[in-house]
Amino acid sequence: MKTATSALACLIAGAILGLPPAAAAAESIEPVPVVHYTFDELTSVAAAATLANTGSGGSALDGVVANAGAAVVADEAGGSAVKFPGGAGSSTTAPFATVPLGAVAAGQQDVTLAARVKLDATANNCQWPFMIGESRTKYLFATTGCGSGTYGEAVNGSVRSTARRAGVLETGWHDLRVALDGGSRLYYYIDDALVASTATQLTAADVAGTTRSGWLAKSPYGDAFFNGTIGDFAVYAEALVDIDDTWSVVTSALAFADGDVVKVHPDETRTLTLPTTGGVVWTSSNPGVIDPRTGAVTPPAEGVATVELTATLASGGETRSAAYTLAVSRPADDPYGYLMVHFIEDANGYAEKIYFDLSRGDDPTKWDRLNAGDPILASDLGSTGIRDPYLVQNPNTGTYYLMATDLRVFGCQPFTTGGREYDCSQHGSWPAGANLSRELVFWESDDLVNWSEPWTLPIAQPDQGMAWAPEATWDPIAERFVMYWSSKTYPTTRFPNQVASEAGAYSKVQYGFTTDFRTDYTYGGVMIDKGRDVIDTTIHQYDGRTYRISKDNGDANVGIWMEATDAVDWWLPTTAWTTVETAIGKADYGSVEGPLMFKDTNKDVWYVYVDQYGGSSQGYRPYRVTGLETGDLDDIAFTKMSASEFDMLSTTKHGVVRPLTLDEYTGLRKADSVSSIAPVAVETTADEAPALPETVTVSYEDARFGAAEIERAVTWDAIDPEAYAAEGTFTVTGVVEGVLPDQQFSADHAATLRAQATVTVHPPSLALESVASTRCAAGKVHIVVSVRNADDEPADITLTSPYGTKTVTGLASGSTASVVFTTRQTSVPAGEVAVSGTSDSGGYDGEAVHAAASCG
Questions:
Q1: CB pairs under 8 A, 24+ apart, for 552-557?
Q2: Which of 40, 125, 213, 826 is the most buried (most CB within 10 A)?
């Protein structure tokens, strides 16, 4: 790969536009194109006109214009350009140009296409200003607009790599560049700015043509011919990528940061991904603990090993480097892993139940849903719906308590609450909370695996319409839980005759005290009263300070807000609070509620999740929070996490995240065992990438939840094209969604839990085209079969019918042979002639069908 320097724009200008070397970066070597059409030699352009190549490939790569209609115009950067008028994809007269074979060498890894183009009007009809390749299954190109975007794309068979930017290309002149770093990444630049990139397994040789190098202004798909101007076009035998763009790809792909603690579970095999995009080289200060070649992590038997990993990228006379110091250990009694308890919302199903997600090892940004995605707990009490769960533990007894809102929004069933029959006739007014959800639902457990039967506790007072989103925080002074929730309070009407539309009714956050969530309960009063709806309060305590996050439903400018206090009796309505942040999540996600907050147990980083609702996008959206460790509220900062920074099923809604101990984590993981992943078998032909399935069957076997089989999405490892270049078999593995690929948590699972596909590669197929027809001669039916060799090498062909066998030996590429079968009958029924063929590298089996015929 050739990684260009930050002065790439100057280099391209020097090469494409013919600027003097002084205009390029002084310390960089100017890239030399293999093909370079400047069009400056042209005064006119007619059919069969030559486009002189000034690149290193010489006149053998001169372009040739097909059809009349193109015109020479001025390039605003100086010199000449060619204006192509476009045309329908079916046109046989629209002008285009052919780049002769030889622009890409056999076995070549990297390639860059660069061009100056001008659009007079935007278009989204997939016009191709330039490409290399020769068919719909082998090419590299950029489109100025296709559907909703502009993109660069590399294709070989079923393998497709697309780097897309939203929005079609704007009118005017633009510099377009598509750089393929073979087997690593595809980059797409517009006006020297990287707009998109994507990982790829393809190389330059994979996308190159065998009869031509490529086209200007023409698509192999039959899309409209390019309607625009091309000022320069160049092909480079290297990937011209700005070094900082490559470096950004590398650093953004890292799953660790400087200063991270890497705890490896005793039953786990851990491998860090060390990306080598662009030729990045990794070194390790302690290869025995972290292998810089494979990323394999081998913790010390005892204690902590400090390892410095260093990544270095060198190219074009420039270097980028970064060091990451990691502390590696095997956890003993340390905190390890996280449990998320939540519900799912499904308007078309009964999903308002309790679900568990477990962190992927000790990583609080990656989550796996337990129990094959099915609920862990459900309620047959009250409304039978469970929302907004929260999990606490009594530090004195070790007992865990799980509490939740009693509310079934979807699929209402008649039930009794507070002695009142609820027949669903008023269910449409459930958001008002009148006469509804007056009891909370609870479970308890000693180990987070085995849970009691549920019970309910009446919470709402006579003037309160509901009790929603309960949470509890341990008070170490009084040795009891402070429980808090939101209830809509009605000024005059009382349960069971509350009026949902009563003026002056709004939600307040209430509190009470309990030790067991059963009989020892005392109502305390109002915690938050802002004179408008406030719901979904959550509490997080750190370093003697209490942080409170709530949702203000009465003031959109406040929305979800965070505040802090140092008061010991933080639940009292008289407590003074300082606002830290408002409108959390609103600008990014619109309607949000149900916040949760927790700390990374290994570093001073916190996470706040907000639950997006009200539209097609639903579920938790995470923010990374920093600054709490300083004690200065002004240092607290929220940073939106991108989709690549976390892995969580989109259906994950309002709940809680609890840090775990090593024993808690191990117990949960062992209780949710994947017994096997069904292997798959795939067939392909030589030089055709295998089409691997998008899902595999995962079998779960669990003493508590029983056996289950479920289809899970799989991400297959990249396949070296050499693996399917010739006849034979090979295996490919992949990571399955929701299944830890490299962690083993019992002796029963000694095999690595990865998907596996066995690929059988057959010899390449011989391209033959055959057609059968009938004719009459002397009153008898004759069957005529024509066979065309559409392959690129000679073939021996055998044709077999009920009336005999014919052979054709050494039919040349592109040639057609016809054979005649004499039936000696006046009529024959419809039938077929078997056609088989062989060549040095492939075979063919097919048939040519003919209709019934009569010569009587």
A1: 553/507, 554/506, 554/530, 555/530, 556/583, 556/586, 557/582, 557/583
A2: 213
